[in-house]
From TrEMBL:
Protein name per its UniProtKB record: Lipoprotein
Top-level taxon: Bacteria
Protein source organism: Qipengyuania vulgaris
Length: 319
């Protein structure tokens, strides 16, 4: 049964009241992008000792590639997050760039083709159950492969550019969806609702999205996989709604989203914000059911007494 704390609808305005929040004060508008987007070295995942757990041994070969914050083994037509043997380290000081250093001393650079003994980790358990490190959500929803006894089959050589004309500068990056929302005229927006008793604007967006999903025919009891939520936010949302999971408890399966342990169909839900520290946040609220089943909406958030007012911005995407 869905738990929604005192959700009322009056004149098109959704008001969610629960314990907590700031009473009748306006919440403080933070400054920055949320969740924060870290840069630098990717996370290196290493396998922890799991007693009787033994992967199905076999040989696997592929190319070392970086995808966001994690390292993948690319092998046509698939890729899998790599879980390395304990003692593996990462270095950015190598002349070939980002390099993995194995306990044996072998160095593997991005683009190298490698081969090793491997085993696919069980898909019905989160990848983090088998790693010493926390697994970023961007890497936690696909397949993973444990690999050791590695050898390099093909090495990518560093290209000597001395004496050559420098390449032309790359074109400026295309604006992100959140940037598009931020630069869109908010005057034509439509008030969607007001979330009361909540200080965190990102939590307010999640509440709005989850209330919409739970109000839809066919999705009222659908499992929801929340992206990039910390323990506090997950606990708070779980008090309001049933059937919530962390992203790592879910995975992609044949183009759709499922709960790992049950294979039941689910939906990824995310909320990305950019706040000015004064009087406004813009947000992208998205839900994804599969490769060809997703949609995102741009929102404008303003602090009001006791919470947030949410308006659409007339900017959206669909797949």
């Amino acid at each position: 049964m869905t738990k929604i704390c005192a959700l009322l609808v009056a004149g098109g305005l959704a008001v969610a009241g629960c314990e907590g929040g700031n009473g009748l004060e306006k919440p403080t508008v933070p400054e920055g992008k949320f969740p924060s987007t870290g840069n630098g070295l990717p996370v290196l995942l290493t396998g922890k000792k799991l007693g009787k757990f033994e992967p199905d041994e076999g040989k696997i070969a592929g190319t070392l590639v970086r995808r966001g914050p994690c390292l993948h083994l690319g092998f046509n037509p698939d890729e899998a997050v790599i879980v390395w043997e304990e003692g593996t380290t990462i270095s950015a000081a190598d002349e070939r760039g980002l390099t993995i250093v194995l306990p044996s001393g072998l160095r593997i650079a991005e683009g190298d083709v490698l081969r090793g003994r491997s085993g696919n980790l069980p898909s019905n358990r989160p990848i983090a159950a088998f790693t010493n490190e926390a697994v970023p959500d961007e890497c936690a929803t696909g397949a993973a492969v444990q690999i050791d006894s590695v050898e390099v089959v093909k090495t990518v050589r560093k290209v000597d550019l001395s004496g050559r004309e420098p390449p032309p500068p790359p074109p400026p990056p295309a604006p992100s969806f959140l940037d598009t929302v931020k630069n869109h005229d908010p005057s034509g927006g439509t008030v969607e609702g007001g979330i009361r008793g909540v200080d965190d604007p990102r939590e307010a967006v999640f509440i709005h999205l989850l209330s919409e999903i739970r109000g839809e025919q066919g999705h009222r009891n659908a499992p929801v996989c929340l992206r990039e939520v910390d323990d506090r936010l997950f606990a708070s949302l779980s008090q309001r709604f049933d059937q919530l999971y962390r992203a790592g408890e879910c995975r992609w399966s044949d183009g759709g989203v499922v709960i790992r342990r049950s294979e039941k169909g689910a939906v990824f839900v995310s909320a990305n914000l950019d706040c000015n520290g004064k009087d406004r946040c813009v947000a992208e609220g998205a839900r994804v059911y599969g490769n060809v089943g997703g949609e995102g909406q741009g929102y404008d958030l303003r602090p009001v007494e006791g919470g947030w007012e949410i308006s659409t911005m007339g900017v959206s995407w669909m797949s």
